[in-house]
Every structure is written in C-alpha cells, then in structure tokens.
Amino acid sequence: MAVLHGYHHVYTSHYHLVFPVKYRKALLTDEIPLAIVQIAREITERFEITFEKIGTDGDHIHLLCSFPPKMSGSQAVRIFKSVTAIQLFRRFPALKKDLWGGEFWSDGFYLATVGERGNWKVVEQYVQNQGKTSGNPAQLRLLT
User: Fold this and answer.
1) Which of 56, 63, 70, 117 would bridge 28 by S-S if both were Cys, CB 3.0 to 4.6 A apart?
2) Closest CA to 94 of 25, 19, 18
3) Domain 13-128 has CATH 3.30.930.10
4) pLDDT tens per residue, range 22-79
C-alpha cells in the first residue's frame, strides 16, 4: 500500500464499495466481469481512481479502491457506475433485453473506509473470495 501523490496532496486512503446489478439480476458471469476489469483499467487511466481488488458474486460487485481526498465516495461510485454501464451496453447489446430501463447498476451502494492496520487484510480477503462458492471465476486481477 503505497502513498499516492497528486499535484497538491499526498494520501493513502482505501475504500470498500459494494453495489448490485439492477433488479438484482445475476449478470456478473462469463465474460462480463472480465470486461469490467478492462473498463476499470480505462477508468484508472482517465480518473484518479485506483482499483486494488475487484470481486463479483453474480448479482453484485465489490471494489477495493483508492481515490484522492478531493473526490467524494459518491463521485467515485458515479464515475464507475456510469462508465461501466455505458461500456457494457456497447460491448454486450443483449444486456438490454435483461435490463430494459437502460441502467446496469441499482441506485444504492455501500461505502466503507478500510484501515491499513486493522481491517485491510480481512476486507481484501473478503473481496478476493467473492464468487468462489457459486462457481464464478476466481479473483479478477487488475495488475499482471
């Protein structure tokens, strides 16, 4: 866990985000989680959001991420949800049959800060183990 540097700030902050697919549909299977990882890389290049771990469990996603103090948690969620939804509908047009309203993610979300000394390893392990019991792919890797 490195200290990140911005133009006028230095920070180390980590967040655990969780949000479901619209209508709680189990669409995070097959190639969609892999596409989300690829889109997350693009988000990292464009915005100052670093995704440390991504885990899916069929109908919801867990993100372990970091973003600068100038950005609020809801801004980070809005960026991730909007960019991934647009890209997923472009890449997988058949999704429109399951999600007829044009939204991929539900409106709500869960956000928690993650401390480096206390609960970092616990949350990291939890996110990493998402989907292992339901037959989904193992932990999705962002970095090679």
Assistant:
1) 56
2) 25
3) no
4) 999 999 998 999 999 999 999 999 998 999 999 999 999 999 999 998 899 999 999 9
Which of 121-135 are b and which e, b meaning 16 or more Cβ less than 10 Å from the residue's Cβ?
Answer: eebbeebbebbeeee
Angle at which helices 32-46 and 73-91 cross, to 10°: 130
Stated as kind and residue range, the H or E segment containing 41 is helix 32-46
Q: Is 14 in contact with 66 (CB distance < 8 Å)?
A: yes
Nearest-angstrom CA–CA distance, 56 and 26: 10
Measure the CA–CA gap between 39 and 60, rounded to whole angstroms. 16
Spell out the alpha helix ranges (H) of 64-137. Answer: 73-91, 95-98, 120-128
Closest CA to 111 of 58, 72, 70, 141: 72
Please count the residues of the chain.
144
